[in-house]
Fold this sequence. Notes:
The complex is a heterodimer of chains A (804) and B (345). With 804 residues, chain A is of the alpha+beta class. Chain A contains 21 helices and 38 strands. Chain B has 2 domains: 2-90; 109-341, BirA Bifunctional Protein, domain 2 (2-Layer Sandwich), CATH 3.30.930.10. Chains A and B meet through helix 2, helix 7, helix 10, helix 12 and helix 13 of A and helix 5, strand 1, strand 5, helix 9 and strand 6 of B.
Amino acid sequence: MYISMNWISDFVDLSGVNIKELINRFTLSTAEVEDVYEYGKDTNNVIVARIVSLENHPNSKKLHLLKVDTGSGIVDVVCGAPNAAAGQLVALCREGGSVKGTLITAASVGGYMSYGMCCSEKELGISEDHSGIMVFDESYADKLGTDIKTFIPLEDTIFEVDNKSLTNRPDLWGHYGIAREIAALLERPLKPLEVKDTAEYAGLPAIDMKIETDLCFRYSCLGVSNVTKNVSPLAMKVRLTYCGQRPINLLADLTNYLMLELGQPMHAFDKDTVSNIRVKQFDTVKEFVTLDGNTRAVDPGTMMICDGDTPVAVAGIMGGLQTEITEKTTNLLLESANFEAATVRRGAAKLGMRTEASARYEKTLDPEITVPAIERFLKLLIDIDPGVKVITSLTDSYPKHYETIKIDFDKAYVDKYTGIDISADRIEKTLKLLAFDVTRNGDSFSVVVPSFRATKDVTIKADIIEEITRIYGYDNFDIRSTKSLLAPVRPDKAREDEYSIKQLLSSRFGMSEVHSYIWYDNKWNKQLGLDLDSDIRIVNSEFSDNVEIRRTDIPTLLSFVEKNVEGLADVRIFEICRVARGLKEDGLANERKVLSFVLASRAKSENALLGEAKEIVDVIAGRLKHTSLGYAAVGSEAWNDAEKALIVEPKLAHRKNSAVITADGKALGVIAVLDPRIAGKIDKKLSAAYVEIDYELFAGVAEKDVEITEISKFPGISIDLSLLVDRETAFGTVKDAISDYKCEYLRDISFIDLFTDDTMPEGKASMTVRLQFVSYEGTLQLDTVNGYKAEILKLLEAKGYTLR
Amino acid sequence: MLEIVSKIKDEFEAGLKAVSNSEELEALRIKFLGKKGALTDVLKSLKDMDAETKKQVGMEVNALKGEMEESLKANGKRLEEALYDMAMAASPKFDFTIPSEDNGGSLHPITIVQRRIEDIFKSMGFIIEDGIEIQTEYNNFEAVNIPKDHPARDMQDTYYLSNGQLLKTHTSAAQNYIMRKYGAPEPGKPLRVLFPGRCFRNENIDACHENTFFQMEGMMIGDDISISNLIYFMKVLLSEVFERDVKVRLRPGFFPFVEPGFELDINCLICGGEGCPTCKQSGWLELLPCGMIHPNVLRMGGIDPDKYTGFAFGLGLTRLAMMKYGIKDIRVLNSGNLKALKQFK
Lengths: 804, 345
């Protein structure tokens, strides 16, 4: 919003005030000033002059040769304005003067010298009118030769206030409210608004007006006739232009002027086109032509001003074309109303037209100002056009009054909230400056909130704190630390572990952390041939492919694999993020934090990658929980349960080389080779393995103590056994079989390798395991160990494992 | 006999001078001190001499033997050193100008910045809380004093979900849960909590806008928490975050969940407050919103606003990370583009 300092000085004496400091103060105490513009200072030496004669320029169809009387002589001016005519009083910028920074010099135009420029209103910044040069009426004849700045306030400082910072201040949407704030900051009086009292028209007939909805809180209107003028005074035009409103005609300009002055949107109907006023809402969509000439479908619920049942305006948003005031209008019906904020806001949003009026209404305006706005309008109109006649009484319906807000508090409350000592006198003075009605008894206060702050802005004690402190100035605060007891903060293990995992994955396992979106990219899923279920979708997105909240992060990570596979030998990425796995009993999302990673390669085998993935999981569990996790194969009970719990998405996993990761038999997550059909769609040579662990379940796994084994002083003996086994025999099974042999010296059984060649029977393989024998009492003898070995081999033979 | 000994000595010394490696040295030792060596021969012949000569020659020979052994040892060491010197001189020269490659992985820039800021907060006694992303309308709006019809609900373009929930639009959505989890603080032990989290806004993505981004929010609630404390805390905290002494400035700002609410500016980091294009010549940068927690928010969180007050502030984590690393296009963060992301170690 643009604020004119000239306008402000109508209401507050700004003499001697450093404007720059004031603006800074305003930013710190009220609302942010985003920009400051100086207007008019770069326009100089523009005078009222009269065109004495006009000839066509011999070398141009458009140009004229003028002789212009400056009051102190005649000068030659070449002018291209289509409306230039002999006898006109015009604004002439003399040679050596400037117009908005452009220096005017004597120059030859098409071979003829010109010693000045006749200016348009737009060139001078008075209005947007650039149709021709500005022409003064004869009432300005006595100003011949006078600098126009002596009677047109072209020089002004305009500051632009950030609208966002006025969201909660309906009172600041007009100059008078800003002036009130500035008066408080400067501790200078605010001049009362000059109005025309309408009490004298009480005897005139009322307008036939009825409010037929709960959402119109007040409707005030007045009929006026005999309007003879239709052009606004220059000073008014300048203010409107400087504040961003295009001057149109007197009546339209006056409604805009009042809106900018008081913050109260007003609407002027051509009274001859409206016979009565009904404020209502319709049940059906209404077609309506707004005054910008567009036909709009107005939603049910949006309030409309009607003549009987015929809409004439969209309440609080825009008037209609049919009842618009024109330059010919002589009778007007002036509306000054108050509508419920959210209804106007929603209506404007649905129509896609946020107007100056609706922007103000949506801030919850004070209904008390509708009548002063009419009275102010009338005063200004009479000043400009003294022949106007009021033809109705002030017709006012005010069904919804806001309650008076009274707030009690004491200085101790202010002290506690602020942490500093602001004196009771200062509190009293500040609130009075801000127009609060203050009753003080020592350190106790009882204040009544002024109506223009009471619609939503100031309602509770804490709001009073803001009023006191912002005027006091936050820069003036003594600042100090809180007083609090010394107390340790216990680290959050789950959170620390999360970071440790990220560190492990990135620095030890060479993986890169990525971030992604919480929804599936269904286009991508389709590309992979995946049709994945989702339990929750976004209902108001314009992109239909990115609305399903994901159950698993793996497809997203695969899209990143695809993005990077060209440039890198291996793609190793992880993310800790959130997914939604179904709905809980209460209907809320079963949101889970998961740790997901993918190892993809064009060189390594599926099982090599799976082995690395398993190593990573084992290292994480070993390092952070000092425990080892279990792996339950596809088809096991744990796997099936995990599928039901949506921990596993079977559409992604290799049918054989996949498992659920378990702790104490409970599924935590999944580890799998990526189904080669999917991998092949990303890249023909690609193999991938992935892991997805429910992080909250992992965090819940009990951390074990580190188990320390005493190291024997005596050397041990290890022996390797190469056993002929079925090719898919698990090491764990063999280890269990060996462990059945009870020997206190057998300390460790480890896997060395598995291989097969032509010398072995079909379906068989050789598995080499290493047995470590250690005694704490003495050095073991080879014979003794060989004795154990023989017994173990006998045991193994009974279970079908023979030495190769 | 003594002449022979003297001759042996001369021969040995001459031989020693000619030795150039340890093999020759060993040969020299064998020649003089070996089982059939020259000096050994003399010793062997001692038994045929008379007692007087035996004594005299024996002393000489033993003295010479000692000398020779000493010399051999010293020269052995010298030769060994020389050997290493030669070997080092012959070894290929290492090129230190060849750059090393870090084939390790990387952390996301948000993680790095988030961790750093969390550490600062932890050092000041803050608990770190994690917030869920799929929230109820109540937690996201009502509980932080944004009732239905409030313009703030229009200000934020929210992703609404088919089950009636929404994707949280701000970290404030966790305030109510946190207040209820910890309850009213004991006297002198204010609740200090930081809750970073991912937020979502239904808006179009470009270089400066993301629909998915990170915020951090902090709260301190106690029986004696004031605006003065808030300003102090923000100044200390931000000086730590930016690793320099920052000036802070508070302006009134409107946020439904605080009263009073502030926009906090810091002196421009580019020009230090002198005025430059980045700060539009004002010397200040708008950094974060903060304020005293609105009594309604405390009340809905089960904390009596007549007894307790608190402050809250929000930090744009994504924005901070972009500032720190000079990331110009926000879309890099969620791109999964490893060429870009692998730079963050």
